[in-house]
Amino acid sequence: MTAARLLDLLFLFVFLAAGQSQPTLTVQGLNGSSVTLTAVGFSKLPLQSVQATDHGTAATFEGLPLATVLAKVELPLGDKFHSTAASYFVSIEAADGYRAVFAWPELDSTFMDKAVWVVVKRDGKPLADRDGPFQLVVPDEKRGGRWVRQVKAIVLKKDN
Fold first, then answer.
1. How many Cβ atoms are within 10 Å of 91's Cβ, its own excluded?
2. Burial class (CB in 10 A: 0-12, 13-18, 19+), 92
3. In this predicted model, what pLDDT tens digit does every residue of 101-143 receive, in sequence order?
């Protein structure tokens, strides 16, 4: 292969890599409200640390409470939703199709205080590709079935 051909391939690779978009997290609330977060932008926010045990291994995660992330969209809060708030739920959707669900009262601090986190770091390092760039961590759950890896969307829905 000639040097010119190698150079052409290098430019093609750089062009394709530059055209790829970064992974994002879409958060959807009521009335079509939504926000899209990038991993880079999320990491620049004032992240907080949370201790949790993942499959028997203690770890320190860095991220934001799910309530903080959800606060960026319209939510079923206040007197208007007094009699209907319990009919809403939040679906956490992963890149591989895995989904976990939380009843809205589990996440609404006027109902209860449940620790649920959207994290981007583990033990001071960005999440591994198999887990991130966004992962949902629920420290007090015993089985971890709602610890969602590669989160791509958080969607508020109403049960019909």
1. 14
2. buried
3. 999 999 988 888 888 999 999 999 999 999 999 999 999 888 8
**HSE (side-chain half, CA atoms, 13 Å) at 129:** 1
In the prediction, which pLDDT does 21 show? 66
Which residues, other chains included, contact 85 with Cβ-Cβ below 8 Å and sequence gap of 6+? 76, 77, 104, 105, 108, 111
Give the integer Cα–Cα distance in Å for 132 and 61.
12
CATH topology for 23-158 is: Sulfite Oxidase; Chain A, domain 2 (3.90.420)
- C-alpha gyration radius of the chain: 19
Between CA 117 and CA 141 the distance in angstroms is 12
How many Cβ atoms are within 10 Å of 106's Cβ, its own excluded?
A: 17
pLDDT band at 18 (very low <50, low <70, confident <90, very high): very low
Q: Pick the closest to residue 149 from 131, 126, 129 (CA basis).
A: 131
At 30, the amino acid letter reads L
Evaluate if pTM is beyond 0.85.
no
